[in-house]
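Sequence only, no structure available. Ideas?
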Amino acid sequence: MDIRGDSLVFGDAGEGPGELSGAIAAIVRGPHGDITVTDSRLSRISRFTRNGVFVSSAPTDGTAMGLRQMTDSTALTRHRTPGDAASAYAEIHLGTGEVLRKWLPDPTVARCRTPPGPGQDKIGLAYPVGTGIVHVACFGEFLLWYPSGAGKAIVIPAPTYRERFTSEAAITKIVQARKDNASGFDPGYTVEDLRSRAYPWYGTAGGDMDNRLWIIRLNEDEGSYVDVYDLPSASFIGTAQLQGDVSMIDIRGDRLIALRRSDGLTDDVVDWYDLPRELASQR
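Reply:
I predicted one. C-alpha coordinates follow.
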Protein backbone atom coordinates (compact mmCIF):
# COMPACT_ATOMS: atom_id res chain seq x y z
CA MET A 1 0.00 0.00 0.00
CA ASP A 2 1.41 3.41 -0.90
CA ILE A 3 1.03 6.73 0.90
CA ARG A 4 -2.19 7.49 -1.00
CA GLY A 5 -3.79 4.28 0.30
CA ASP A 6 -3.67 2.46 -3.07
CA SER A 7 -3.19 -1.28 -2.64
CA LEU A 8 -0.76 -3.59 -4.43
CA VAL A 9 -1.91 -7.09 -5.33
CA PHE A 10 0.77 -9.69 -6.09
CA GLY A 11 1.36 -13.43 -5.90
CA ASP A 12 -1.39 -15.55 -7.47
CA ALA A 13 -2.75 -18.53 -5.53
CA GLY A 14 -0.90 -21.76 -6.25
CA GLU A 15 2.40 -23.58 -5.80
CA GLY A 16 4.35 -22.40 -8.84
CA PRO A 17 7.04 -19.69 -9.09
CA GLY A 18 5.72 -16.42 -7.68
CA GLU A 19 2.58 -18.07 -6.35
CA LEU A 20 1.49 -18.19 -2.70
CA SER A 21 -0.47 -20.78 -0.75
CA GLY A 22 -2.31 -18.36 1.51
CA ALA A 23 -0.45 -19.58 4.62
CA ILE A 24 1.70 -16.44 4.89
CA ALA A 25 3.80 -16.37 8.06
CA ALA A 26 5.35 -12.91 7.62
CA ILE A 27 6.17 -10.10 5.17
CA VAL A 28 9.24 -7.82 5.29
CA ARG A 29 10.17 -4.90 3.04
CA GLY A 30 13.75 -4.66 1.78
CA PRO A 31 16.02 -1.61 1.43
CA HIS A 32 14.78 -0.71 -2.08
CA GLY A 33 11.12 -1.43 -1.46
CA ASP A 34 11.28 -5.07 -2.55
CA ILE A 35 9.03 -7.47 -0.64
CA THR A 36 10.03 -10.78 0.97
CA VAL A 37 7.32 -13.26 1.99
CA THR A 38 7.54 -16.48 4.01
CA ASP A 39 5.05 -19.18 3.01
CA SER A 40 4.67 -21.78 5.75
CA ARG A 41 2.65 -24.27 3.69
CA LEU A 42 5.13 -24.26 0.79
CA SER A 43 8.17 -24.01 3.12
CA ARG A 44 9.84 -21.29 1.11
CA ILE A 45 10.73 -17.61 0.98
CA SER A 46 9.68 -15.61 -2.10
CA ARG A 47 10.89 -12.17 -3.16
CA PHE A 48 9.01 -9.60 -5.24
CA THR A 49 9.87 -6.12 -6.52
CA ARG A 50 8.16 -3.08 -5.05
CA ASN A 51 5.72 -3.34 -7.98
CA GLY A 52 4.83 -6.95 -7.17
CA VAL A 53 6.90 -8.64 -9.90
CA PHE A 54 8.25 -12.04 -8.81
CA VAL A 55 12.06 -12.16 -8.54
CA SER A 56 13.12 -15.41 -6.86
CA SER A 57 12.34 -17.96 -4.15
CA ALA A 58 14.37 -20.16 -1.83
CA PRO A 59 13.30 -23.21 0.19
CA THR A 60 13.48 -23.35 3.97
CA ASP A 61 14.72 -26.45 5.79
CA GLY A 62 11.33 -27.01 7.42
CA THR A 63 8.03 -25.23 7.91
CA ALA A 64 8.56 -21.47 7.57
CA MET A 65 7.15 -19.82 10.70
CA GLY A 66 8.33 -16.21 10.74
CA LEU A 67 10.42 -13.40 9.31
CA ARG A 68 11.93 -10.50 11.24
CA GLN A 69 14.06 -7.66 9.88
CA MET A 70 17.62 -7.52 11.28
CA THR A 71 19.30 -4.70 9.35
CA ASP A 72 18.34 -2.55 6.36
CA SER A 73 19.31 -5.41 4.04
CA THR A 74 18.94 -8.65 6.04
CA ALA A 75 16.16 -10.53 7.82
CA LEU A 76 15.90 -13.37 10.30
CA THR A 77 13.79 -16.36 9.27
CA ARG A 78 12.40 -19.02 11.60
CA HIS A 79 11.51 -22.54 10.52
CA ARG A 80 10.75 -25.87 12.13
CA THR A 81 11.79 -29.37 11.05
CA PRO A 82 9.88 -32.35 12.53
CA GLY A 83 11.86 -33.89 15.38
CA ASP A 84 13.83 -30.75 16.23
CA ALA A 85 13.72 -29.67 19.90
CA ALA A 86 13.61 -26.00 18.86
CA SER A 87 13.04 -23.83 15.81
CA ALA A 88 15.99 -23.28 13.50
CA TYR A 89 16.98 -19.86 12.16
CA ALA A 90 18.67 -18.36 9.14
CA GLU A 91 19.76 -14.87 8.13
CA ILE A 92 18.93 -13.95 4.55
CA HIS A 93 19.84 -11.01 2.34
CA LEU A 94 16.65 -9.17 1.40
CA GLY A 95 18.13 -7.92 -1.86
CA THR A 96 19.23 -11.29 -3.24
CA GLY A 97 17.52 -13.92 -1.09
CA GLU A 98 20.93 -15.44 -0.30
CA VAL A 99 21.16 -17.41 2.97
CA LEU A 100 24.06 -15.82 4.89
CA ARG A 101 24.10 -18.16 7.91
CA LYS A 102 22.03 -20.82 9.66
CA TRP A 103 21.88 -21.99 13.26
CA LEU A 104 19.90 -24.10 15.70
CA PRO A 105 19.76 -22.88 19.35
CA ASP A 106 21.24 -25.29 21.88
CA PRO A 107 18.46 -26.37 24.31
CA THR A 108 20.95 -27.93 26.75
CA VAL A 109 22.54 -24.67 27.95
CA ALA A 110 19.66 -23.76 30.31
CA ARG A 111 17.87 -25.91 32.88
CA CYS A 112 14.24 -24.85 33.39
CA ARG A 113 12.69 -24.72 36.85
CA THR A 114 9.52 -26.10 35.23
CA PRO A 115 10.08 -28.39 32.21
CA PRO A 116 8.16 -27.49 29.03
CA GLY A 117 4.71 -29.06 28.90
CA PRO A 118 2.76 -30.35 25.89
CA GLY A 119 2.78 -27.83 23.07
CA GLN A 120 5.58 -25.74 24.63
CA ASP A 121 9.19 -25.10 23.58
CA LYS A 122 12.15 -24.74 25.91
CA ILE A 123 13.72 -22.16 23.59
CA GLY A 124 11.40 -19.36 22.56
CA LEU A 125 11.40 -16.77 19.80
CA ALA A 126 14.53 -14.98 18.62
CA TYR A 127 15.04 -11.22 18.59
CA PRO A 128 17.78 -9.54 16.50
CA VAL A 129 19.84 -7.06 18.51
CA GLY A 130 22.79 -5.48 16.70
CA THR A 131 24.68 -8.29 14.97
CA GLY A 132 23.50 -10.87 17.51
CA ILE A 133 20.42 -12.86 18.43
CA VAL A 134 18.58 -13.19 21.76
CA HIS A 135 16.34 -16.14 22.61
CA VAL A 136 13.94 -16.31 25.55
CA ALA A 137 14.44 -19.66 27.33
CA CYS A 138 12.41 -21.49 29.98
CA PHE A 139 9.43 -19.12 29.59
CA GLY A 140 11.57 -16.11 30.55
CA GLU A 141 13.66 -17.58 33.34
CA PHE A 142 16.77 -17.09 31.16
CA LEU A 143 17.88 -15.21 28.05
CA LEU A 144 20.29 -16.83 25.59
CA TRP A 145 22.54 -14.26 23.91
CA TYR A 146 24.37 -15.26 20.73
CA PRO A 147 26.65 -12.25 20.05
CA SER A 148 27.25 -13.11 16.40
CA GLY A 149 24.00 -14.96 15.83
CA ALA A 150 25.63 -18.38 16.19
CA GLY A 151 28.31 -20.20 18.18
CA LYS A 152 28.10 -20.57 21.95
CA ALA A 153 25.28 -18.90 23.88
CA ILE A 154 25.79 -16.62 26.87
CA VAL A 155 23.14 -17.46 29.49
CA ILE A 156 21.63 -14.44 31.29
CA PRO A 157 19.33 -15.14 34.27
CA ALA A 158 16.23 -12.94 34.50
CA PRO A 159 16.18 -11.46 38.04
CA THR A 160 12.53 -10.38 37.82
CA TYR A 161 11.23 -13.81 36.73
CA ARG A 162 8.38 -15.33 38.73
CA GLU A 163 7.09 -18.80 37.97
CA ARG A 164 3.42 -18.65 36.99
CA PHE A 165 0.89 -21.15 35.69
CA THR A 166 -2.17 -20.87 33.48
CA SER A 167 -5.10 -19.48 35.47
CA GLU A 168 -8.35 -21.39 35.89
CA ALA A 169 -10.18 -18.60 34.04
CA ALA A 170 -7.85 -19.00 31.04
CA ILE A 171 -8.24 -22.79 31.14
CA THR A 172 -12.03 -22.42 31.08
CA LYS A 173 -11.77 -20.23 27.96
CA ILE A 174 -9.48 -22.74 26.24
CA VAL A 175 -11.81 -25.63 27.03
CA GLN A 176 -14.84 -23.69 25.76
CA ALA A 177 -12.99 -22.71 22.58
CA ARG A 178 -12.18 -26.37 22.04
CA LYS A 179 -15.87 -27.27 22.38
CA ASP A 180 -16.85 -24.51 19.97
CA ASN A 181 -14.30 -25.60 17.36
CA ALA A 182 -16.39 -27.04 14.55
CA SER A 183 -13.37 -28.63 12.85
CA GLY A 184 -12.84 -31.03 15.75
CA PHE A 185 -9.17 -30.03 16.10
CA ASP A 186 -7.58 -31.62 19.18
CA PRO A 187 -4.22 -30.15 20.27
CA GLY A 188 -3.38 -33.39 22.09
CA TYR A 189 -3.16 -32.16 25.69
CA THR A 190 -5.55 -32.33 28.60
CA VAL A 191 -6.83 -29.84 31.17
CA GLU A 192 -4.28 -31.23 33.64
CA ASP A 193 -1.57 -30.58 31.07
CA LEU A 194 -2.75 -26.97 30.89
CA ARG A 195 -2.61 -26.60 34.67
CA SER A 196 0.98 -27.89 34.79
CA ARG A 197 2.33 -25.65 32.02
CA ALA A 198 4.38 -22.64 33.07
CA TYR A 199 3.03 -19.32 31.81
CA PRO A 200 5.48 -17.19 29.76
CA TRP A 201 7.02 -14.30 31.67
CA TYR A 202 8.13 -12.28 28.65
CA GLY A 203 6.39 -11.12 25.48
CA THR A 204 7.62 -9.03 22.57
CA ALA A 205 10.98 -7.28 22.61
CA GLY A 206 13.12 -4.75 20.79
CA GLY A 207 16.78 -3.78 20.70
CA ASP A 208 18.53 -0.43 20.60
CA MET A 209 21.80 0.78 19.06
CA ASP A 210 23.70 0.10 22.30
CA ASN A 211 23.04 -3.67 22.03
CA ARG A 212 20.47 -3.59 24.80
CA LEU A 213 17.31 -5.69 24.89
CA TRP A 214 14.00 -4.15 25.93
CA ILE A 215 11.42 -6.86 26.64
CA ILE A 216 7.82 -6.64 27.87
CA ARG A 217 6.59 -8.65 30.83
CA LEU A 218 3.27 -10.38 30.21
CA ASN A 219 0.03 -9.86 32.13
CA GLU A 220 1.15 -7.79 35.07
CA ASP A 221 -1.65 -6.58 37.36
CA GLU A 222 -1.17 -2.83 36.94
CA GLY A 223 0.30 -1.18 33.87
CA SER A 224 3.09 -2.70 31.79
CA TYR A 225 6.71 -3.31 32.67
CA VAL A 226 9.71 -3.45 30.35
CA ASP A 227 12.93 -5.11 31.54
CA VAL A 228 16.19 -3.82 30.08
CA TYR A 229 19.36 -5.89 29.62
CA ASP A 230 22.83 -4.86 28.53
CA LEU A 231 23.77 -7.80 26.31
CA PRO A 232 27.54 -7.22 25.85
CA SER A 233 28.04 -7.35 29.63
CA ALA A 234 25.28 -9.97 30.11
CA SER A 235 23.72 -7.86 32.84
CA PHE A 236 20.30 -6.60 33.90
CA ILE A 237 19.99 -2.78 33.88
CA GLY A 238 16.54 -2.07 35.26
CA THR A 239 12.81 -1.86 34.63
CA ALA A 240 10.66 0.84 33.04
CA GLN A 241 6.97 1.06 33.98
CA LEU A 242 4.55 2.06 31.22
CA GLN A 243 0.91 3.04 31.19
CA GLY A 244 -1.82 0.55 30.23
CA ASP A 245 -1.58 -2.74 28.35
CA VAL A 246 1.41 -2.35 26.00
CA SER A 247 1.74 -4.79 23.08
CA MET A 248 4.76 -3.41 21.17
CA ILE A 249 7.70 -1.11 21.82
CA ASP A 250 10.44 0.63 19.85
CA ILE A 251 13.49 2.56 21.05
CA ARG A 252 14.72 5.72 19.31
CA GLY A 253 17.60 7.39 21.14
CA ASP A 254 16.23 8.83 24.38
CA ARG A 255 12.61 8.02 23.47
CA LEU A 256 10.56 4.87 23.97
CA ILE A 257 7.55 4.40 21.68
CA ALA A 258 4.81 2.09 22.97
CA LEU A 259 1.68 0.74 21.30
CA ARG A 260 -1.01 0.55 23.98
CA ARG A 261 -4.03 -1.69 23.50
CA SER A 262 -7.41 0.02 23.70
CA ASP A 263 -10.35 -0.90 25.88
CA GLY A 264 -12.18 -2.22 22.84
CA LEU A 265 -14.19 0.97 22.43
CA THR A 266 -11.43 3.15 20.99
CA ASP A 267 -8.42 2.71 18.69
CA ASP A 268 -5.05 1.58 20.03
CA VAL A 269 -2.85 4.43 21.28
CA VAL A 270 0.81 5.25 20.60
CA ASP A 271 2.61 6.70 23.64
CA TRP A 272 6.01 8.44 23.66
CA TYR A 273 8.20 8.35 26.77
CA ASP A 274 11.32 10.36 27.58
CA LEU A 275 13.80 7.84 29.01
CA PRO A 276 15.84 8.57 32.13
CA ARG A 277 19.54 9.12 31.51
CA GLU A 278 20.55 5.65 32.73
CA LEU A 279 18.25 4.02 30.16
CA ALA A 280 18.63 6.39 27.20
CA SER A 281 20.82 5.35 24.28
CA GLN A 282 24.27 6.96 24.26
CA ARG A 283 24.37 7.08 20.43
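Confidence is low (pLDDT under 50) at residues 1-5.
Hope that gets you unstuck.
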